[in-house]
UniProtKB/TrEMBL annotation:
It comes from the Bacteria. Keywords: Metal-binding, Signal. The lineage of its organism: Bacteria, Pseudomonadati, Pseudomonadota, Alphaproteobacteria, Hyphomicrobiales. InterPro entries: ModA, ModA/WtpA. Belongs to the bacterial solute-binding protein ModA family. Pfam families: SBP_bac_11. Residues 1-22 form the signal peptide. This is Molybdate ABC transporter substrate-binding protein. The gene is modA. Gene3D superfamilies: Periplasmic binding protein-like II (3.40.190.10).
Length: 249
């Protein structure tokens, strides 16, 4: 009997430890373009507070739908306002925690030997961009091209991708002539150049809102606060984004 009781006590202790570990962990669902920021922030946060941060990166639309379906995220970082609004309307985030943590610019990336400042030449052959039906970067890209009155001319050359990182991979592998991506994504690639930057007034401001998902733990609140802090904003700037204070929000 003593052995059985001891075994049960050990099992219960392990279970409690497992629960405690899960409670202390922060799970971030973030837009693919925020990958470098979140990974570096997680590293520094771990060194500072000893708390683990795990992250899942994909298109904002995909992640928002996963949160809606009950995926165990504690923080959601979107690449546009629409998908944050989507979760807020469904009462799946803590409204008071919602904050813009960064901004970005839209550019065209291409191989160095294919760089051309002429927009129509750049997109006159196959080019990659996020799917405008659900990927924020694709929405911004289509809006910008419509604003510049060339979408109808080059639409047939577009290869739609699930997120900006995939679009970058296409042009890096020379499978397309160019890719419409965020400036921050182009900044981390050594084999591609920025051939064109879309005028800021050609599309809606590119903002990255972040918020706590309903039921988030105190550790998640601390990590979100870290992203807003001077240290977090320094990471954001270093990775090619615009600091929150500079977005005008």
């Amino acid at each position: 009997m003593k052995k059985i009781l001891f075994s049960c006590a050990v099992a219960l202790s392990c279970l409690v430890t497992s629960w405690a570990s899960a409670a202390e962990q922060v799970t971030v669902f973030a837009a693919a373009s925020m990958k470098d920021v979140i990974e570096e922030a997680a590293k520094q946060f771990k060194e500072k507070d000893g708390i683990d941060v795990v992250a899942s990166f994909a298109a904002s639309s995909v992640l928002a739908k996963q949160v809606e379906a009950g995926a165990p995220a504690s923080i959601f970082v979107s690449a546009d306002l629409d998908w944050m609004d989507y979760l807020q309307e469904r009462k799946l985030i803590e409204d008071e925690s919602r904050v813009v943590i960064a901004g970005n610019a839209l550019v065209i990336a291409t191989q160095k030997d294919k760089a051309d400042s002429d927009l129509e030449k750049l997109l006159g052959a196959r080019f990659a961009m996020g799917d405008p039906s659900n990927v924020p970067a694709g929405k911004y890209g289509k809006a910008a091209l419509e604003h510049l009155n060339i979408w109808g001319k080059i639409e047939g050359n577009a290869v739609f991708t699930e997120n900006v990182r995939v679009a970058l991979q296409y042009v890096s592998r020379d499978e397309v002539n160019a890719a419409i991506v965020y400036a921050s994504d182009r900044a981390v690639t050594t084999d591609l150049v920025e051939a064109y930057r879309f005028p800021a007034d050609s599309h809606k401001a590119i903002l990255y809102p972040a918020a706590l998902v309903k039921g988030a733990n105190d550790e998640a609140k601390a990590f979100l606060a870290f992203l807003e802090s001077d240290a977090g904003q320094a990471i954001i700037a270093d990775k090619g984004f615009v600091k929150a204070a500079e977005t005008g929000q």
